[in-house]
Amino acid sequence: MFALTFLGTSASVPSAERNHPALLVEAAGQRILVDCGEGTQRQLLRSGAGFRRLDRILLTHAHLDHVLGIPGLFSTLGLRQTSDAMTIHGGEGTLDLVIRMLAGLWGAGRAPIPVEFAALSEGQVIDAGDFTIDCFPVRHRDTDSFGFVFQSPARRHLQSDRLAALGVPDGPLRGELAAGRPIVVDGRAIDPEDVLGPPSGGKKLVVIGDAETTDGLSKHVADADMLVIEATFLERDAPTARNYGHLTAAEAASFAAANNVGQLVLTHMSGRYEDEEILAEATRILPNSRIAADFDHVVI
Prior knowledge:
Blueprint: E1 3-8, E2 22-27, E3 30-34, H1 40-47, E4 54-58, H2 70-79, E5 86-90, H3 92-106, E6 115-119, E7 123-127, E8 132-138, E9 145-152, H4 160-165, H5 172-178, E10 183-185, E11 188-190, E12 203-207, H6 218-221, E13 226-230, H7 238-244, H8 249-258, E14 263-267, H9 275-283, E15 289-291, E16 297-299
Helix pairs in contact: 8-9
């Protein structure tokens, strides 16, 4: 299960209703920020999420609307005297910008809290046991941008009717079967395949920040339960979208539909459009589309 709290859903210019980009993803007791736009620390408080157990930031790219909230967040965490180290993941160019930004405020190699920097390259970022995070490159203007795949494994569960029919008692023997090891009951060998049901429960969440194209991304997005992606423009302004390195709502929806995405969530909203216009363009192609608003909480 993944729980998402949208902390900022605007494009580069915020509005009274939409803050700069930031998304909180919670899974298996861990809490991870994807991007940290200006004002993210206040959005964490306003959403009720707070700062507890917040020790990792994934950055999609280095544009300022996605990173300017980091100094303020670190300053507050330092004042709260948190001892946890913060790990920031990003492309090498993105990390270089963040390192220089922090150095300009507090001096080279210094920050209000301990910070570790982890450069991204395509492949696995984290294996947390109950879920993994992988990253993949995304084209967006002149940045070293990345998207992220959060995935929890499908699991096979013991079938109570089969256990009863085979006379497997409650207790350690069932634990052995659940772990994939055969057992013996009353002289009879019982294999895990005899009592385990089909795989179920695995979830796949894909988060993509700004993108000028979806070319080459299908293998990472295919069959996702949810795709979070930008839709800064409408199709009538597609040439402008190309010039600024962004997608239209129709492009995002067509990409999601072509890759069997369960639900599309559009973000990075521009104030030039009404939400209803954006949603109408997307739902004509993929009915299960929605627009994210600040403080929306979604569970998959």
